[in-house]
Design a protein that fits this description.
flat, 50% strand, 174 residues, Outer Surface Protein A, domain 3, mainly beta, twelve-stranded mixed β-sheet
């Protein structure tokens, strides 16, 4: 688990995030990591070959947050060394979850899911090493309107193979 600690003057409140783990090994207590929780407005975007977020002159490690005008949480984006990394979440103004994405060093690695205001799943994309490999979309009545999977004839398929060879062993399993 990761705890987001408010920084003085940031206007951010404390809240807790889950790293996706649902259980712990026997005889091992969960470890709580406290990270700075900083409003996006306090971060500086530096664009070079990649996009990095800086805070107080250093690559940001922590959770960037945004709030709706009423003070409720709008989004939380974990960063490691300036790069978006971890479970990214955003909410509708009602508090209903709107979007959830698993990022690995800036790229989608795992699922990105989107829900409408009523909580119905409207889109699901599976990414691997930053490349979409499957996508499903549903209409307002819940009917599947798109069901796509990457194939060897797709433009990014060869890029996916290169990425798998280069980073596949170090990436978490899908």
């Amino acid at each position: 688990m990761t705890s987001c600690k408010s920084n003085e003057g940031s206007g951010a409140s404390s809240h807790h995030l889950s790293d996706g783990s649902s259980s712990f090994p026997r005889n091992q207590e969960p470890v709580m990591t406290v990270l700075p929780c900083v409003h996006f407005d306090e971060l500086e975007l530096v664009v070079s070959d990649d996009q990095y977020m800086f805070w107080k002159g250093q690559p940001f490690t922590g959770i960037a947050v945004e709030f709706f005008p009423d003070g409720t949480l709008q989004s939380e984006v974990p960063h490691v060394n300036g790069i978006r990394h971890g479970l990214v979440r955003a909410w509708h103004p009602s508090g209903q979850l709107r979007k959830e994405s698993n990022l690995w060093y800036g790229g989608l690695h795992g699922y990105r899911r989107e829900w409408d205001e009523q909580g119905h799943l409207v889109a699901e994309v599976l990414g691997e090493l930053g490349i979409a490999i499957a996508e499903k979309r549903w209409d307002e009545q819940g009917r599947l309107i798109k069901d796509w999977h990457i194939s060897p004839t797709d433009n990014l398929y060869s890029t996916l193979q290169i990425c798998r060879k280069k980073w596949g062993q170090s990436a978490p399993p899908l």
